[in-house]
């Protein structure tokens, strides 16, 4: 688990940062503000729900350290989820046929295997109950 990306696992929350000077929010968490260049970023937990901004299907196997499952690579949806102050790129745990721009999404844990078969806890977004925003 990368502490600059995941703030907690139970419940899962992403780690962001907000500038005390200009209010800019970033993901992942970082020390310097990309807008005003000050070192006034304070670590925050980002919201666990947002709205699907856009998405596509990853149709080719990513480079290492990604490791395909034993059944082989299968395409999967990825997208941008608007959390209010920041938009996060993430894997989407959903049937692509059910995805629509504007769908409410919730943060979920994702266990991935990397080169060498080591499990790594990551994150994804799945449709939240309640549908579109």
TrEMBL record:
Q: What is this protein called?
A: DNA-binding protein
What positions does the domain ChsH2 rubredoxin-like zinc ribbon occupy? 11-40
Q: Where is the ChsH2 C-terminal OB-fold domain?
A: 45-108
List the Gene3D superfamilies. Answer: 6.10.30.10
Identify the PANTHER family for this entry.
BLR3430 PROTEIN
Instruction: Say which species the protein is native to.
Output: Prauserella endophytica
**Which SUPFAM superfamilies does the UniProt record give?**
Nucleic acid-binding proteins
- Give one Pfam family: zf-ChsH2
């Amino acid at each position: 688990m990368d502490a600059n990306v995941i703030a907690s696992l139970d419940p899962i929350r992403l780690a962001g940062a907000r500038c005390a000077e200009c209010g800019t929010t970033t993901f992942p968490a970082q020390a310097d503000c990309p807008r005003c260049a000050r070192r006034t970023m304070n670590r925050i937990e980002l919201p666990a729900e947002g709205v699907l901004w856009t998405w596509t299907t990853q149709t080719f196997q990513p480079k290492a350290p990604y490791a395909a499952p034993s059944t082989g690579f299968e395409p999967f949806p990825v997208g941008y989820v608007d959390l209010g102050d920041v938009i996060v790129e993430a894997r989407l745990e959903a049937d692509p046929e059910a995805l629509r721009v504007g769908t409410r999404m919730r943060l979920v844990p994702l266990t991935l295997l990397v080169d060498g078969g080591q499990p790594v806890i990551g994150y994804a977004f799945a449709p939240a109950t309640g549908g579109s925003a």
